[in-house]
């Protein structure tokens, strides 16, 4: 199978690195061709802090996915998270030289490129510029201005900013692992892509992705992304607390959390006890499940409250901005028992656990449909979309050439230049930027 037919998403997490190879089947669903996962060793709280270890972890995951599928991995789409990510709202406008012509892709691109030129703090770079609503000649709340007449085109943008050095480090890891960097996407956006339905995005929903090192938040309303944020705590801090609180080693703490952990202390009876083998000839330790869930509860409440502060910052309490679909929890941390009930109790919002199976083909592996893989599936979807856009652009370019050769320049077909999505533009910029950084 040629490279164009399948794409690869690579999720570089704090606890695990996952590579997923997939393609779109004839029904527009995603068929998973192979997966690989490895323990992530060089990442702390979503940020690469040991390049060598990260490279070998990436290689491990990629090799496994290649073996699994019998395909070769070339270019990958990677997610970025970490506490250095921040987002801001910005509005910008362009004045069009000729208001007698309709607004086209070039105008929208010009407006977006203008936002990329915003001056950021030293050491920061713009990762995404996401248009929210447009205004044409003062007429507001326009979702798609293409094809309209107007002299002044303005828009509100959701701008996501990250640290240059972190972006470079990810690029470096990918390159050194022998791969090409197709694109970098914000992880909460990828997870949202995989887990949320269009209806939820319209009604208003907050996606909370609880990973090992970070908890990512993406808020949608009226089908548009409104707020993103990365909180530097995740499942690992819960494990740390259990380790400290019960004086046991990390491996045991992680197992305890997964097997017996609960976010709601009232659930466990006082006499439920689990015995843990001691280290090298020491006595085994006995831990009551009640204490275990008290430790977990305290930390989870802290994480959920921080996320809730972000949801309030977005303005959930205003009638117009109310998130009707409530909260969707995903990521490995969302599998904690009774977490859904706790989140509903703290926020008073409807909550469900999000599985990334909405866009997967029916015969996909059960395991991939677990919340653990939400980000990886979202990155794969992004990779497929990017590939589809590039193929369309190439086909159009070929058609254009043929038309020119035949000598009948066809009026009214979008030129191949227009087809270049903002995304491709950005990834080109990023590639140049990384190449220069070498």
Automatic annotation (TrEMBL):
Membrane topology listed for this record: Peripheral membrane protein
Keyword Cell membrane in annotation: yes
Database matches in InterPro entries: ATPase_NBD, Cell_div_FtsA, FtsA/MreB, SHS2_FtsA
Chief location bin: membrane
SHS2 domain sequence ranges: 7-195
Protein family (similarity comment): Belongs to the FtsA/MreB family.
Subcellular location: Cell membrane
Gene assigned in the entry: ftsA
Assembly and oligomerization: Self-interacts. Interacts with FtsZ.
GO biological-process terms attached to the record: cell division
Function: Cell division protein that is involved in the assembly of the Z ring. May serve as a membrane anchor for the Z ring.
Protein name: Cell division protein FtsA
Keyword Membrane in record: yes
Keyword field: Cell cycle, Cell division, Cell membrane, Membrane
PANTHER family: CELL DIVISION PROTEIN FTSA (PTHR32432:SF4), CELL DIVISION PROTEIN FTSA-RELATED (PTHR32432)
